[in-house]
Every structure is written in structure tokens, then in C-alpha cells.
Amino acid sequence: MQPVLRRAEMCHLKVSDIDSTRMVIHVRQGKGGRDRDVLLTPELLETLREYWRWMKPRTYLSRAQ
User: Fold this and answer.
1) 48-60: pLDDT as tens digits
2) What are the b/e assignments for 12-35, b being 16+ CB within 10 Å?
3) How many Å apart are CA 13 and CA 35, to the nearest integer?
4) 40, 20 Cβ separation under 8 angstroms
5) C-beta neighbour count of 59 within 10 angstroms
6) Confidence band (pLDDT; 50, 70, 90) for 1?
7) What values do phi and psi take at 5, rounded to 5?
8) CA distance 26 to 4
9) Residue 5 in contact with residue 38, Cβ under 8 Å?
10) Per-residue model confidence (pLDDT) at position 23
11) Residue 61: its pLDDT value, please?
12) Mean pLDDT for the chain?
């Protein structure tokens, strides 16, 4: 698993891409058009949960979508 999430990949993340059970973020069609999993740290998971409670995203995490 690669621990890096690119900015463009972050903009396309969906709520369903976060797997808190496996502690990974599933990146779809990342660099080179490949799918991959990125390590989800407990700190990042908590930050994402706070963001979710604040912004209440439905499909995409980012407003860019």
C-alpha cells in the first residue's frame, strides 16, 4: 500500500471510498489510471469523521465535484 494521496485523487474521493474497517482509502483511477489503496491512519480517520460531521457530504468528500 502506498501512503501518499495526491491532490487530484483527493478531489475525486467518495464517502464510500473510505474503509474504516480495513483502515484504507480506495483510490479509483489514480495516476496512470490505476486503482490502489492508501493507508488510513487513526488520526486521518478522526479528521475525516470530523469533516463529515461538519460538511455532511453525501457522495463526494470534496465540494469540487
Assistant:
1) 999 999 999 989 9
2) bbeeebbeeeeebbbbeebeeeee
3) 12
4) yes
5) 8
6) low
7) -120, 120
8) 12
9) yes
10) 96
11) 86
12) 89
| Lookup result for grid cell 473510505 | 18
Grid coordinates standing for 56? Answer: 455532511
Write the DSSP assignment of 21-51 as a string of letters.
TTTEEEESS-GGG--EEEE--HHHHHHHHHH
What's the confidence (pLDDT) of residue 39?
93
Which amino acid, one-letter code, is at 20? S
Q: Report the alpha-carbon distance of residue 39 to residue 37 in Å, rounded.
A: 7
User: What tens digit of pLDDT does each residue of 36-47 get?
Assistant: 999 999 999 999
Exposed, middle or buried, 61 (CB in 10 Å: 0-12/13-18/19+)? buried
Distance CA 65, CA 63 (A): 5
Grid cell in block for residue 19: 474503509
